Amino acid sequence: MRPGLVLAVGPNGVGKTNLLEAIHVATQGFSPRTRTDAQLVRFGDAGARAAVTGRRGEVELELEVTVRPGEGKRARLNGAPLRTAEQLRTTVSTLVFTPDRLGVVKGAPAARRAYFDRVLARLFPARASLSVEYGAAIAQRNAALRRAAGGWSTREAIEPWSDRVVSLGAELVAGRLEAIATLEAGFAERAGELGLEAAVVRYEGEAPTREALDVALERDLERGTTSLGPHLDDVLLLAGDRDLRGFGSQGEQRLALLALLLAEAEAITERSGIPPLLLLDDVLSELDPSRRLILAERVRRAGQALITATDAAMLPAEADQLLEVTPGAIAEAA
């Protein structure tokens, strides 16, 4: 792929989404479509490999991920093996839009929490482990609750994990709020350009306190779970007073997700000086011509992007590179 805006075209079912998925796997270490690595391997094959070469600023990069069922993933950066494939994320930022990712807008709160925790990790790499550490603390507190409720331990054994939940929960909420504050102005502007007026992103929740956990202790013992904290919070995406999860059309939900991606791309570029890679699958099909043009202009400014479509005419701008995808092959258009 050349730098700039790359358009990959071809009929439905020829592999355009597979191309996008392979690039995401090679740059991020995981698929945006499945968390089951075995599904990345074509039926009947022993394994799969995704590799890309490119530049991050002035640095040449070679990224590679190999998947073999039963062996896990293996990743290399410039030929050197990495401890985990997910370490690739610290080298390259890749943002992806696929139609099934509309769950970020219209799905359950867990989908939005996961999304914004990834945003937090990309914008503030030093806080990338916060969500995982907090989740581990919640799991330990829940286990301590169940042991105490069953008479196999004491209530005092819960207290260190309560303190840990309070400490990490406060850090995680603060990080999420800062990430949202970094995006909110850009989100409103990009959404407005695309025709989604008065768009707002708002955090719903607050940091847990030791006092609140103590008040909820009897309930938590009865249920065996921690009943408050950022693992239960939500992020609202609004158009005026309307929550787009329940009161937005699918078109508005698509626009909100696109606006989030564009706002984050701008924030990453501003913070790091290096734009992310944008992968936009079937993003043009439900946009009218004027919004397609606005999106194309914004994407071109954001850095390198790969857009897939069934027809080159769907993009009302000249791509820097046009690829034609056919079953089992990709070629540059003449």
Would you identify the CATH H-level superfamily of one domain?
RecF/RecN/SMC, N-terminal domain
Distance between the termini: 15 Å
The CATH architecture of one domain: Up-down Bundle
Widest sheet: strand order? 6-10-11-1-12-13
CATH topology type of one domain: Glutathione S-transferase Yfyf (Class Pi), Chain A, domain 2
Total helix count?
10
Question: In terms of structural class, how would the helical and strand content be classed?
Answer: alpha/beta
Shape: globular
User: Uncertain runs with pLDDT below 50, 5 residues or more?
Assistant: none
- Radius of gyration, taken over Cα atoms and rounded to an integer in Å: 22 Å
User: Which range does the strand content fall in?
Assistant: 15-25%
Q: Give the SSE string.
A: EHEEEEEHHHHEHHEEHHEHEEE
Residue-averaged pLDDT: 94
Percent of residues in helical segments?
A: 40-55%
Main pleated-sheet profile = 6 strands, mixed
CATH class of one domain, anyone?
Answer: Mainly Alpha
> What is the total tally of β strands?
13
